Amino acid sequence: MASTRSDWLQQVPIFGALSDDSVRFLLARSREVEVPAGGYFFRENETASAMYVLDAGRAVVLKGWHGAAIELRHLEPGDCFGEMALLDLFPRSASIRALDDCSAIELTPGGLLQLFEHDAGQFAMIQMNIGRELCRRLRATDELLFRSRMAGEPAEARTPACTT
Q: I need a surface site. Which of 2, 106, 112, 162 has the fewest CB within 10 A?
């Protein structure tokens, strides 16, 4: 099962290009977390202490707004969430609620530190992969923000002026 899980994780972008040895090393330092449908992996503004890879089930990313929980996106098996916890010291920026009974692999900064001590090159690779994933999400968010702003602008404000 470990090699199957290792192979599966290598298909997840954050673990792409990591060696089998490094993936198995991280798996040995991770734990399986189970959250029942309707339960939370974590809530917005909580102290961040780990990232997760959804192994089974579906979940939703929620952001609080004036007392309401706004859905930002849905998560499927293979999706990662909470990875900012491995890079910054800020509280959680959103909540993750299980839509189904879910299980996920939990990775902590301590596990990554052990990977650094074991193989600094592989540690650098996973850090770069996390950075790439965050950049991909930032680009998608920028595009959504742009489209949202343009939808609210009058047509003449959207049309660039021609100068001769």
A: 162
Residue span of the structural domain in which 77 resides:
2-150
Burial of residue 23 (CB within 10 Å: 0-12, 13-18, 19+) is buried
Tokens of 55: 């192994």
* CATH code for position 118: 2.60.120.10
- CA–CA gap between residue 158 and residue 150 (Å, rounded): 7
CB 105 within 8 A of CB 52: yes
DSSP state of 154: -
Residue 163: inside a domain, yes or no? no
Q: What is the pTM of this model?
A: 0.84
159 in any annotated domain:
no
Question: Position of tokens 């290598």?
Answer: 10
pLDDT digits (tens, 9 = 90+) for 66-119: 999 999 999 999 999 999 988 887 999 999 999 999 999 999 999 999 999 999
The pair of structure tokens assigned to 113 is: 């530190």
